[in-house]
Amino acid sequence: MSELSEVLGAVMISLVHARRLADEETAAVAEYYKDNPLLEGMSLPRVRVPELTIDMPVTFEQHIPAKDAELDSPSNIHKALMEQFKQSLDDEDILSKTKSFQASFDKESKLALDKMSELQRAGGTRVTREALLRSIDDAFSKSLKKNVANKEIPFEKTQVVSKSIRHKLSQVALKSNSNPLSLVANATTSAVKESTNSANSVRLQITLREEGLEWATSSQDGKLKNRLQPE
């Protein structure tokens, strides 16, 4: 038994590899045509499957509910943030000039973390890593605006500090990641025949459409960049 997502993913992955195998054979045939005087002027055969419909019976064995991400404790996150904050200020050589800013961010970030933690405990809203990042960004901006002396600090330096804090928060924010809801399914033919009934079996009719990609090379700032784009 596997999750339904794994079953569907396996079908799509198989089609991708089928296309690869077909293209490899096409390349081999191209070499053969090139070396044969009677064939070199002919068009090269290439088989593509622009659309494929699969009718597949499956049985659903289990439903696994979704699990929201769990934040680490506010105290642990706050400690890691403040250590990174002061380290970044020191790296930018502005640690001694930002005493009031440090005290203000210490307070504002703790309030923001406590608020997000309370929201998660209440269960009224889903707390995400991005929501936490935005709350700390707001705390950072609010702390910076409260301290007039900090206007003398170059904008570039505060942006470097803010970026380092976001990076650190992404690393330490979550105690456990979220998991989407999932269905445990069985698509093995023999098992489906043996256990199928009207209560747990369905037929999935899946239509897959092929979209080709190709490499494109461009030059930017003297450097070559490769990217995949639609054919």
| Global outline | flat
Low-confidence stretches: none
The main sheet comes to:
4 strands, antiparallel
Structural class assignment: alpha+beta
Q: Key terms for this structure?
A:
about 50% helix, alpha+beta, 4-stranded antiparallel β-sheet, about 230 residues, about 20% strand, flat, 6 helices
Describe this structure in words.
Helix content is 51%, strand content 22%. The chain is α+β, with helices and mostly antiparallel strands. The protein has 6 helices and 8 strands; from the N terminus they run E-H-E-E-H-H-H-H-E-E-H-E-E-E. The chain has helices at 4-35, 74-91, 99-122, 129-146, 155-172, 189-195, and strands at 2-3, 51-64, 70-71, 174-176, 182-186, 201-209, 213-220, 223-230.
Short description:
The chain is an alpha+beta fold and 231 residues long. It contains six helices and eight strands; from the N terminus they run E-H-E-E-H-H-H-H-E-E-H-E-E-E. It has helices spanning 4-35, 74-91, 99-122, 129-146, 155-172, 189-195, and strands at 2-3, 51-64, 70-71, 174-176, 182-186, 201-209, 213-220, 223-230.
Task: List the topology elements.
Layout: E1 2-3, H1 4-35, E2 51-64, E3 70-71, H2 74-91, H3 99-122, H4 129-146, H5 155-172, E4 174-176, E5 182-186, H6 189-195, E6 201-209, E7 213-220, E8 223-230
Antiparallel strand pairs: 1-5, 2-5, 2-6, 3-4, 7-8
Helix pairs in contact: 2-3, 2-5, 3-4, 4-5
